[in-house]
């Protein structure tokens, strides 16, 4: 019998000229034990964790000027929280931020993990203009066949931003350690044509979800 399990961790990212926020939700299905007359099969547990371990790039300071910054504080994103992933408010062309995420395996089974961009919302012409200029780059920390960095425009998320493979995270049941791996997501407000009117983006707000999926590795 083949057992399978998935866990999805959903992050909401907001890129806006006004505010920023985050909503995290986790959903998963538990394994169940299966017994026969002479054999008792016990499925392993899939326990994936997610944290933002670094945030860097550009942000607006208290004087209204763009400055480079790096924030190395760990932010646990496994459970629901209102902590922001990105702090992109009052954005301007060429501004970018890079978030580093750490995936952990606290369970007893190995899993493949991937990331998707989903539920992009941009209401009104200003928000649509901002959405069309946002570029997303997903960079895995591992190197393997079929795993590489991927860059796409946010408006193309449905075709290019789904199920981007990030690697396989083993379970260490012998040493009882919790293996981890990292990946980054970069959001950039790309440059426009010379002489572009900034009023085109006035009041714009764009939101999107970052969905991290963990799927148990099973025998083919």
Summarize the structure.
The chain is mainly beta. The protein has helices at 125-131, 157-160, and strands at 6-16, 24-28, 34-35, 40-41, 48-60, 66-71, 75-76, 96-105, 111-121, 134-140, 150-153, 164-169, 180-189, 205-216. The strands form three sheets. Strands 5, 6, 7, 8, 10, 11 and 13 form a seven-stranded antiparallel sheet that branches. It has a five-stranded antiparallel sheet with strand order 2-1-14-9-12. Strands 3-4 form a two-stranded antiparallel ribbon.
Notes on the structure:
The chain has 220 residues and is mainly beta. It is built from two helices and 14 strands; from the N terminus they run E-E-E-E-E-E-E-E-E-H-E-E-H-E-E-E. The chain has helices at residues 125-131, 157-160, and strands at 6-16, 24-28, 34-35, 40-41, 48-60, 66-71, 75-76, 96-105, 111-121, 134-140, 150-153, 164-169, 180-189, 205-216. Strands 5, 6, 7, 8, 10, 11 and 13 form a seven-stranded antiparallel sheet that branches. Strands 2-1-14-9-12 form a five-stranded antiparallel sheet. It has a two-stranded antiparallel sheet with strand order 3-4. It is elongated. The termini are close together. The model is unreliable at 16-42 (pLDDT under 50).
């Amino acid at each position: 019998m083949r057992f399978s399990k998935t866990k999805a961790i959903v992050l909401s990212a907001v890129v806006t000229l006004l505010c920023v926020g985050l909503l995290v939700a986790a959903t998963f299905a538990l394994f169940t034990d299966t017994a026969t007359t002479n054999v008792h099969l016990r499925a392993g547990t899939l326990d994936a964790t997610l944290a933002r371990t670094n945030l860097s790039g550009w942000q607006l300071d208290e004087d209204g000027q763009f400055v480079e910054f790096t924030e190395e504080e760990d932010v646990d994103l496994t459970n629901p929280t209102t902590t922001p992933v990105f702090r992109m408010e009052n954005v301007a062309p060429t501004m970018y931020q890079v978030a580093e995420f750490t995936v952990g395996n606290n369970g007893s089974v190995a899993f493949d993990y991937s990331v998707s961009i989903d539920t992009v919302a941009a209401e009104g012409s200003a928000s649509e203009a901002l959405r069309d200029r946002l570029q997303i780059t997903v960079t895995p920390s591992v190197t393997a066949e079929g795993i590489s960095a991927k860059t796409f425009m946010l408006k193309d998320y449905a075709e290019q931003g789904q199920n981007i493979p990030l690697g396989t995270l083993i379970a260490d049941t012998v040493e009882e350690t919790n293996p981890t791996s990292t990946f980054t997501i970069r959001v950039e407000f790309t440059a426009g044509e010379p002489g572009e009117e900034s009023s085109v983006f006035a009041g714009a707000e764009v939101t999107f979800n970052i969905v991290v999926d963990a799927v148990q590795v099973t025998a083919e």
